[in-house]
Design brief:
Blueprint: E1 7-12, E2 18-26, E3 29-35, H1 38-57, H2 68-80, H3 88-98, H4 108-124, H5 130-146, H6 157-164, H7 171-191
Antiparallel strand pairs: 1-2, 2-3
Helix pairs in contact: 4-5
């Protein structure tokens, strides 16, 4: 280490008055300063120690309006971008231009209620059957029990896959669950409650259909 730590020590002047001295080297230059009391000497020592540390580590003292937390976040971001050809300004500009916040953080409970209301209207218009409406209400009741306190935007791919796989279902049951929630999420996109549909990244199982074999035996000729 090329920058020694500064020391603060007490000494008596020739006139018998006690003083405090800060002594050390900064970038090869000898620094010795006297102070009337220990508090002033301690403050100066801390300042000089920080300057020495900054020189040793390449740190810089820069006036800023940022809070300490914001400075630490900026440092972390620059560290993540050190191997990237993109600058921080490019990343910020891209985010501002392309990222869209959902229009509202709609709770899943309220979103499902709005969706079921549209299905009630479709039933009244004879667009869906009563049995299908009952099936939807039961299915979404289970859906809300599984996700009691989330917003629609918090329905991640991982959460949906876990929900579809509950109880070790058959591939057909899994696909049926996926299709039901997919329709609901499309409805949510139209309302602006989510920006993108996570169902697009949820796998859909392909089910092989086996040909039906005929059990009819050919008649033998007589």
């Amino acid at each position: 280490m090329s920058h020694s730590v500064f020391a603060a020590s007490r000494f008596e002047n020739r006139n018998g008055v006690t003083s405090w001295r800060v002594d050390g080297r900064l970038n090869g230059l000898r620094i010795r300063r006297n102070f009337k009391n220990q508090e002033e000497a301690a403050a100066e020592k801390a300042t000089l120690d920080l300057k020495a540390l900054q020189l040793e580590s390449g740190m810089r003292s820069v006036p800023t309006f940022l809070t300490e937390e914001q400075v630490r976040e900026a440092e972390a971001v620059f560290s993540r971008l050190k191997d990237s050809s993109r600058t921080l300004s490019f990343c910020v500009d891209y985010t501002v231009a392309n990222y869209q916040e959902p229009e509202s953080q709609k709770s899943l409970k309220d979103a499902v209620a709005a969706y079921i209301a549209t299905k009630d209207h479709e039933f009244e218009q004879d667009h869906i059957s009563e049995s299908h409406l009952v099936f939807l209400k039961r299915s979404f009741k289970r859906f809300l029990r599984h996700f009691p306190k989330v917003t629609v935007a918090e329905l991640t791919v991982e959460r949906l896959i876990a929900f579809f796989n509950r109880g070790k279902p058959s591939l057909k049951t899994y696909n049926n669950r996926r299709g039901l929630i997919s329709t609901f999420l499309k409805f949510s996109i139209q309302r602006g409650w989510i920006v993108a549909n996570p169902i697009a990244k949820v796998p859909h199982h392909r089910i092989r259909r086996h040909p039906v074999r005929s059990t009819h035996k050919a008649r033998r000729g007589t």
